[in-house]
Every structure is written in C-alpha cells, then in structure tokens.
Write a structure and sequence with these properties.
Its main location: cytoplasm. Belongs to the FAIM1 family. The structure is a single chain. It is built from one helix and 17 strands. The protein has about 180 residues and is mostly beta strands. It folds into two domains: about 80 residues, Lipocalin, CATH 2.40.128; about 80 residues, Lipocalin (Beta Barrel), CATH 2.40.128. Strands 13-14-15-16-17 form a five-stranded antiparallel β-sheet, with no helix packed on it. It has a four-stranded antiparallel β-sheet with strand order 1-2-3-4, with no helix packed on it. The chain has a four-stranded antiparallel β-sheet with strand order 5-6-7-8. Strand 13 and strand 14 form a beta hairpin. The protein is elongated and about 65 Å long.
C-alpha cells in the first residue's frame, strides 16, 4: 500500500448508516487529488493544473452528496472544507441533531449504533435500515423493531412544551437507553 504522503485533511461524518471517515490527498506540486471514503478510493486525479476547485462524491448507504472545496488562502497555503448535502459540515451536523436521534448500546457483546430519522421514522442499526412496526398508544406512538433477540421500541411522546416538541426514547428489553451525543 502506497503511503499517503499528501494527506491534507481527514473528516469523520456521522450518517444514519454509520460514521464515515473521509480522507483527502492533495499534491500541491503535482496537482494530484485523491478522495478516500472509509479507506476506499473514490476519486483519483493525477495531474491537475488548477490547484483550487472542488471534488464531489457520495458517502454511505444513502449516497449522501459530499464535496471537498479547495481554496487558496495565501501563497502556497490551501484550505480544505467539506460540504455534506450542500451545507458546511458544521451546519449539516447541527441540522442533523435536530432531525435524528442516536443511541449507542452494547447488545450481546456488540456495540450497536441505533439511529432514528425523525422525518421518516426510519430506524437504522449499524448501517442497516430495520423493519419496524408503528402503533399509536395513549400518550404518543411506539415504533417496534428487533435487534438480534432483543425487543426494541422507540417511544415518541409530546414534551408538552412547544420548543422541545416530541421526546423520543429508546427502550431495549424494558430498559431505557440514554441518547448518545455524536
């Protein structure tokens, strides 16, 4: 394996199907640009006369659009920024924390990352979209699914406060799991 000598930027991006590592090589003498997603080469351009610009690619199971922007800061210094879904990484992650809930728990010795997409009520576990059954209950809704032999349920209950909206709680085998902060 050739050593990444021109590695200039590394980002970790949490999506519903997992946390993805994006690495970018930029040869400022050769103009080489290489983008790796989770260690796999996505883009390789050997000779680029223009050292600034943008590389676009997709990340994860949902093929989320991503772009690396290459800007000259001064002289031979460059700045690299990552956009996800047309937003800066910071804005994307801030928005994501409003549209998803994430729980990390250990089941049968395996670390499970459970993600709820609030707009679609899709539930993901370690990169796979799960089959779910939703039902209305007295105080809200319950979304039932299984992970291995474990009964899981995401309860959605109104907080009673407009600003907070709906509170989602993951319950696994009757135990409440605290939400993770990514």
């Amino acid at each position: 394996v050739e050593k990444m000598t021109d590695l200039v930027a590394v980002w970790e991006v949490a999506l519903s199907d997992g946390v993805h590592k994006i690495e970018f090589e930029h040869g400022t003498t050769s103009g080489k640009r290489v983008v790796y997603v989770d260690g796999k080469e996505q883009i390789r351009k050997e000779w680029m006369f223009k050292l600034v610009g943008k590389e676009t690619f997709t990340v994860g199971a949902a093929k989320t659009k991503a772009a690396i922007n290459i800007d000259a800061v001064s002289g031979f210094a460059y700045e690299y920024t990552l956009d996800i879904d047309g937003k800066s990484l910071k804005k994307y992650l801030e928005n994501r924390s409003k549209t998803t809930n994430t729980w990390i728990l250990s089941l049968d010795g395996t670390v499970c990352r459970v993600v709820l997409e609030k707009d679609t009520m899709d539930v993901w576990c370690n990169g796979e979209k799960l089959e779910t059954v939703g039902e209305f209950v007295e105080d809200g809704t319950e979304t039932h699914f299984t992970v291995g032999d474990h009964d899981c349920c995401i309860k959605a209950v109104s907080s009673g406060k407009r600003k907070e909206g709906i509170i989602h709680t993951l319950i696994v085998d009757g135990r409440e799991i605290p939400e993770a902060v990514e």
